[in-house]
Amino acid sequence: MYDIIIVGAGTAGLTAAIYGRRAGKSVIVYESETYGGQIINTPEIENYPGIKNVSGYKFATDLYEQVIALGTDFEYDKIVKIEGSFEEGFKLTTEFGKTCEGKTIILACGAKNRHLGLPMEEKLLGRGISYCATCDGAFFKGKNVAVNGGGNTALEDAIYLSGLCNKVYLIHRRDAFRGESALVDIVRQTANIELVLNSTVSELKGEKKLEAITVKDTVTSGERDISVDALFVAIGQVPSNEPFAGLVELDQSGYIVAGEDCKTNVKGIFAAGDGRTKTLRQLTTAASDGAIAAVACCDLILHENQ
Fold first, then answer.
1. Which is more confidently placed, 305 or 95?
2. Residues with catalytic annotation?
3. Which domains are delineated in the chain?
4. Residues 24-77: pLDDT tens digits?
5. Three-state SS annotation for the chain
């Protein structure tokens, strides 16, 4: 019977493990793929406090090694079922049929960026293809870039990049944006943002790095190439919370409903990181969630034993 079971080994989950172990609790982390989450694929991190510059791989590996050094148990397996309660104890079942019991659970499964699904997309990741303008925008200062999307994230990305880049093409499949009107107004008033409406990205060009994109008009089906050094894809994220749909409350987009205290609607189950409802999904907020959720688990266990 573990004190804390953590599902997901991204920044939130690994930070939770550190805080849990340092509080003297028994902790196990389950990860279905690899430690680190999305950040492990980021070539460089320059916005984490106290670290001037580090690769995503090194950051994730250092975090993982810190967790292991503290004596955390770690299993590469996917959790497919959770049953029980805080009062009786939770039982988790893995994809390979193994079971684990715990007093509290932290769901830190994260979310995956929705991809375009185009050839070369994976190959050019980190070489011009990015899913985070605030993470990677500075690498393209003074260059021509494009943003694909029509929601608040895409609008905010375009505005942010307009302050760094020479020109920003904002590509949207419709003729009107679904984002906030105030953001749309700013975009339309920004001189170096060019709107490419009723258009989709149909092809990525470049071998070692992105050199151009082909956009297709959704009305006329005509195509044209646009030379850019980067394409920031902002067409949404997909939370990895499917196995828990009947366990905790999810919003209409599939995110676990939990506030800044990381509490879900089920006693003893907490949500941390990109998989919960929140306004800012960054490395720093993921680490914050992990710490908050782990401390909350410890407090709950302490009060139950008093």
1. 95
2. 132, 135-136
3. 2-113+237-305 (3.50.50.60), 129-233 (3.50.50.60)
4. 999 999 999 999 987 886 767 888 999 999 988 999 999 999 999 999 999 999
5. CEEEEEECCCHHHHHHHHHHHHCCCCEEEEECCCCCHHHHHCCCECCCCCCCCECHHHHHHHHHHHHHHCCCEEEECCEEEEEEECCCEEEEEECCCCEEEEEEEEECCCEEECCCCCCCCCCCECCCEECCHHHHHHHHCCCEEEEECCCHHHHHHHHHHHCCCCEEEEECCCCCCCCCHHHHHHHHHCCCEEEECCEEEEEEECCCCCCEEEEEECCCCCEEEEECCEEEECCCEEECCHHHCCCCCECCCCCECCCCCCECCCCCEEECCCCECCCCCCHHHHHHHHHHHHHHHHHHHHHHHC
